[in-house]
């Protein structure tokens, strides 16, 4: 997971069709906010769920721009997935509903007015989006949450527990000890991001890459005409394989 430097120019479909849909969502909520809100004593099935047009935020022009900005890598695990996966347009702040710290149930509505917002969009592999991130959006302090469109200008005050690679450098919050991601200075934000984004699932893949790098570093210093160096390198490779194989 690395910092994403997004293109400043917003894809046209987001500023046209997306802006129109956003206005529709805001007007609907304003007209009858309670029907969209999670409330004590109100069954989830009774809450009206917003409908979103994935043909807008998932338009090919949006996907192409995101893929280019992210160098064809998933915004979370950095896997290159274009050869064997369609990928998902991911919303940093969940559009339909969100989950609080330690909660199993969704809270409605989500950040509906950000469904077509360029600054809220990223591109991820399906596994990261659908199995790990999903609707999780925990905060340090729940009282800082700004869940409705009239609070849009106050989002910077939300004490988010998930790294936003659009605006933050992940290396400030977690690093790697060999192949294992670990929080920097016991950062709770780093630890939560590692868990929610499912970054530990890649430990085995990172270990294999680490092995390959170490082997390459060993071999690159070999004089192919020197039998002694070749024998020494072979011995080091054997020891390395015993330790990590």
Describe this protein's structure.
- The protein is mainly α and 245 residues long.
- Helix content is 35%, strand content 7%.
- It is built from eight helices and four strands.
- It has helices at residues 12-15, 17-31, 54-57, 60-69, 126-133, 188-196, 203-219, 227-244; strands at residues 88-91, 121-124, 174-177, 180-183.
- The strands form two sheets. A two-stranded antiparallel sheet has the order 1-2.
- β3 and β4 form a beta hairpin.
- α7 (203-219) runs antiparallel to α8 (227-244).
- The chain is elongated and about 80 Å long.
Radius of gyration: 22 Å
What structural class is derived from the secondary structure elements? mainly alpha
- Pick out the low-confidence regions: 240-245
Strand order of the largest sheet: 1-2
Distance between the termini: 26 Å
The best one-word shape is: elongated
SSE order, one letter for each helix or strand: HHHHEEHEEHHH
Number of DSSP strands? 4
Helical residue percent band: 25-40%
Strand coverage percent: 5-15%
Integer average pLDDT: 85
* Main beta sheet: 2 strands, antiparallel
Output the number of helix runs: 8
């Amino acid at each position: 997971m690395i910092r994403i430097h997004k293109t400043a120019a917003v894809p046209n479909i987001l500023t046209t069709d997306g802006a129109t849909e956003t206005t529709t969502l805001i007007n609907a909520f304003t007209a009858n906010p309670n029907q969209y809100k999670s409330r004590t004593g109100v069954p989830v099935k009774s809450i009206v769920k917003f409908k979103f047009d994935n043909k807008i935020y998932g338009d090919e022009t949006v996907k192409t721009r995101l893929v280019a900005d992210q160098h064809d890598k998933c915004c979370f695990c950095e896997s290159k997935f274009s050869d064997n996966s369609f990928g998902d347009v991911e919303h940093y702040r969940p559009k339909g509903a969100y989950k609080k710290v330690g909660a199993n149930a969704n809270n409605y509505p989500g950040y509906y007015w950000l469904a077509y917002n360029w600054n809220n969009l990223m591109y991820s592999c399906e596994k990261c989006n659908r199995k790990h991130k999903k609707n999780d959006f925990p905060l340090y302090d729940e009282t800082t949450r700004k869940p409705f469109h009239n609070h849009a200008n106050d989002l910077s005050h939300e004490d988010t527990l998930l790294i936003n690679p659009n605006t933050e450098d992940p290396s400030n919050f977690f690093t790697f000890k060999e192949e294992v991601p670990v929080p920097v200075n016991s950062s709770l934000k780093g630890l939560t991001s590692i868990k929610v984004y499912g970054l530990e699932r890649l430990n085995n893949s990172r270990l294999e890459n680490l092995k390959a790098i170490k082997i390459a570093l060993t071999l690159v210093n070999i004089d192919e005409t020197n039998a002694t160096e070749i024998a020494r390198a072979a011995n080091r490779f054997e020891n390395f394989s015993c330790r990590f194989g």
